[in-house]
Design brief:
The protein is an alpha/beta fold. It has 15 helices and 18 strands.
Amino acid sequence: MNIFIIILIYTFYIMRKCIIIPIKHSSSRVPGKNYRDFNGEPLMKIVLSTIVQSKSLDTIVIDTNSDTVKEILKEYHDERIIVYDRPEHLWDGNTPTNVLLENVIQDLNLDHEIILQTHVTNPLLTLETVDQCIAQFVEKEKHGYDSLFTVKQLQTRLYTMENEKVNALNHNPNELLPTQDLEPLYEENSCLYIFKREVLFEKHHRIGYKPFMFVMDDIESSDIDTETDFILAETLHKELVLNKVSKDRVVLVTGASRGIGLEICKKFHKQKWTVVGVARSNDFHHPSIDTYISKDLTSPNSAKEIMDIVQEKYGKLDCIVNNAALQICKPVWEMEDDEWSKTFDCNVKNVYLFVKHGLSMLKESKGNIITIGSVHSVVTSNEIAAYATTKSALAGLTRNLAIELGQFGIRVNCICPGAVDTSMLRDGLKRGHAGNGTSDELVESLGKSHLLGKVGQPDEIANFVLFVADDNNGRFINGANLLIDGGACVKLSTE
C-alpha cells in the first residue's frame, strides 16, 4: 500500500476526534433560546441531530449547567455522548469559551488529538459542512496548519468612521469597481472550530498559530443572538430544510471564479442545484460552488478530465454552462498563431469536447447546454478579431448541436450578452476604441449609448441563464441565439 494512503488512513481514522458543545441554561438577549421551540423541536436538537450523524467523531461532549438540557439529552442513546456538569464557578455568562474548553478537556482527561467546537445556535449547519471541515483540517494539518475556523465571505464596500471622518476600508471610492471584483474579506461566524489539543493549552485560544479559514454559505452561517435572528433562522430552516427540495440537479459552469460565471453559480445555488465550477485559479473557494475544479481549458484533455470528475463524484449532469472565454485585444496582424489557437480552444473547441465527453450523462438527464456567446457575433469592433470570430462560430455550433442532440431530448441554446460590467469589459475598454478616461467613466459613457442608458450587470445575464436552464420556464427554447444587449443593436449608428 502506498505510504501516502497509509498516512491518510491513519490521520483520518486513527487520530481521535472529539466535539465539545457548550449549552448554557440562561441567555440574556433571547431567554431560554437553547431549548426554546424551533419549528416543533428544542433548538439544541437541530444541531445535535446533525452532529450525531457524523461518523468521523469519536466523542461528543455536551458541557451544560441546565437541568432542562440534561432532560432533553435523555432522548439520545448514542454511546459517544458525554454529558458534563459545568462547575458552578464557570456559570457566569461572561466566561470565555476558551476557558470552558480547557476546563472540560482537563476535567474529563480528553486525550483526543483533534478537538471540534460548535454551538447549538447555528441551526442551519449541515452534516456535509461538518465532514468537509474535518476532511480539510486533516489534509491541511499535514502541511503545518494547526486550526480551522468557519467564516462567511464579504464582498462589499466597507468604511470606517473616525472623528466623524469617513474612510474607505477595502476599496478606492474614486474608482467603484463592481462588488464582485473587490478583494474579498472574511467574517468569523463562530459556527465551527477545529484545533489541535496542544494548541488550545499553549495559546489559550481555539484559533492557533497557523489557522485555515473554511468559507460557509451566508445562510448556513446564520447564528441566533437576538430575537430577530431567531425568527429569521426559524423561517429559513422551515423553507430550506423542512420543505427542502432535494438537490438532485447538477450544473457545470466554466469561468466560474468571477464576473458572469460566478453570478451564474450563485443563481443556480440559490435554486438548490448542485454547482460544479471550473476556472483557472488554483485556490478559489465560494459557498455557492459545491465542487471547484481548477483547469486551464486551453490545455489538452481538460474537458475529458473535468467530465470524468463529474461522473465519478455525481454520476449525472443536467446542464452545462459554457461561460469561460479568452479575449485577446490586438490587431489581427499582431496576433500570434498560438494566441489565435488558444482563443479557439477555450471559446469553441471546449464546447464540442464537453458535449462529446458528457453526452452519456446529458442523454440520461435529458439535460441542456447553454453557451455564453456575445454581441460580437452580430456587431463588433476593432482589435478583437479572434474573440469575435469564436463567438460567431458558437452561433453556428449552437444551431447544429440543437439539431443533432434534439433526438435525445437535449436542448442547446446560446445567450449573447452585450456590454456587461465585468473585468473583461473594463480590460477591453483600455484599448481606446471607446474613447479615453477612467474605467468608471468609460463604462458610464458606453452605457449612455444603450437605449436603457446603462450597461448590463452580471446578475442580469445570470438570471436569464437560469430561466433558460429551467425546464419549467425554458422547455420550448431550443437552438436559439438570444441577444441580451439592452437594446444596443437596435439603434442605427446614423441616428
